[in-house]
Amino acid sequence: MAGIRMIDIAVNFTDGMFKGIYNGKQCHLADLSTVLSRAWAAGVDRIIKDLLFVLQVTGGSFEESREALAIAETDGRLFCTVGVHPTRCKEFEESGDPENHFQALVSLAKEGIQKGKVVAVGECGLDYDRLHFCPAEIQKKYFEKQFELAHITKLPMFLHMRAAAADFCEIVEKNKYRFTAGVAHSFTGSTDDCNKLLSFDNMYIGINGCSLKTTENLDVVRDIPVEKMMIETDSPYCEIKNTHAGISFVKSTWPSKKKEKYDQECIVKGRNEPCLVRQVLEVVAGCKGINDVGSLSKTLYHNTCRVFFPQDLDSAADALLAGANSS
């Protein structure tokens, strides 16, 4: 793992699996600290947690957002986003006062920024694969509304696009001067979809296991410029499975056991976690024919810092990297 530094831009740490709960059943004790230790040992330098914002009275609630922020505050290498997922946008109207709901979102974002923990607006966008959760018109309305949050906070955007490229790009085009930069995370679209996204300045593509399932997926990833890419796990989901086209490029493995036979020295079978972002890096390198994985990791690391951690960039190293990419 020496010489490899990575940033995992998408982890769902409030998911029950990191508390040992699977389908409502407690299978083992909470093990977030163990998961994080494995990530740091694997070369993960920072992690961004998607902070789900909801203000419902029942079910997942505002407390979940507070929990995500509290987790981020436990370690200087943890950060989060603030926004409303497209499948949850009905909550604006179900709240009875959409503008008040939005102002609560603004307040939470400002609190997180003041604490140095909130680094993006999101996860927001359009998901037409799951219209049963939220109709397209409501998704579009509140996707556009969240550009106002980006404008107010001057934060970049953490974006979600599923089967909605035309409407998504139309809304981004209308609002492209209201946000500084963005990443379309967990990208699984076509080359045409990718080209549409990359036609916007300061737009990046987030790659995880779901981006690497098929040979067609790998063809798309192969054509994405490395200077426009970031990597992620979206754990505990989106692992690279043995049935995925990209598995042949995986070199790093960890011992694993089923959740019922939990061992803190092993990863849990079927549960993705941040250390496995190393595998995403390896598949990207493999399908692109890049032998120097360390150099690729440096490029992806700097891409991520440019968007989410610009204050931490080493300007000299960044200038050298930019020169190498242009040559």
* Multimeric status of the protein: single chain
The fraction of residues assigned to DSSP E strands is 15-25%
Average pLDDT, rounded to a whole number, is 90
Number of helices: 11
Taking Cα atoms only, what radius of gyration do you get, to the nearest Å? 19 Å
Name the shape in a single word: globular
Please state the structural category: alpha/beta
Main attributes of the structure:
327 residues; 39% helix; 8-stranded parallel beta sheet; single chain; alpha/beta
How would you sum up this structure in a few lines?
With 327 residues, the chain is an alpha/beta fold.
Task: Give a verbal description of the structure.
The strands form 3 sheets. The protein has an 8-stranded parallel β-sheet. With 327 residues, it is α/β, with parallel strands linked by helices. The relative contact order is 0.14. The chain contains 11 helices and 12 strands. The model is unreliable at 52-61 (pLDDT under 50).
